[in-house]
Design goal:
136 residues, DUF3301 domain-containing protein, alpha+beta, elongated, 5-stranded antiparallel β-sheet
Length: 136
């Protein structure tokens, strides 16, 4: 026989699954918005994903405090360093996108050299030979 407690647990479980399913859809929307924003700024979204950082009470554009999902992502401008960004979502609506400060390349500037100068590599056998001679 199914009791009231069993029905309550089933409904609680179904509500949890529905919340997770909706959260997945919101994450997919956040990913699409992050890709669109990065393309607009001509920067590259790294790893092609956003990750839920936390749930928080955040002020919206009208100044009202609302529950928001805060997603984090990484992007690059130069291809060398990873910079962080965050995106807040109020349901399926975008709250705001924040990016770390990044350099903006202008067409007049020459490209920045990305290679490090060649380092002097010492082979271990040579180093041992030189230090064995010094010790004796």
């Amino acid at each position: 026989m199914i009791g009231l407690g069993d029905v309550f647990l089933f409904l609680l479980f179904a509500a949890g699954l529905a919340w997770l399913w909706r959260g997945h859809g919101i994450r997919e929307r956040a990913l699409a918005l992050a890709k669109q924003h990065c393309a607009k700024l001509d920067i590259e979204l790294l790893d092609g994903n956003v990750a839920l950082r936390r749930l928080a009470m955040v002020r919206d554009a009208r100044g009202h405090r609302r529950l928001a999902r805060i997603y984090g992502f990484e992007f690059t401008v130069t291809g060398e360093q990873r910079l962080s960004g965050s995106l807040s979502m109020f349901g399926r609506q975008l709250g705001r996108i924040e990016l770390d400060a990044f350099p903006i390349a202008t067409p007049d500037e020459p490209p920045v050299a990305t290679q490090q100068p060649a380092a002097k590599v010492i082979q271990l056998q040579d180093w041992k030979r030189r230090h064995d001679r010094l010790d004796t």
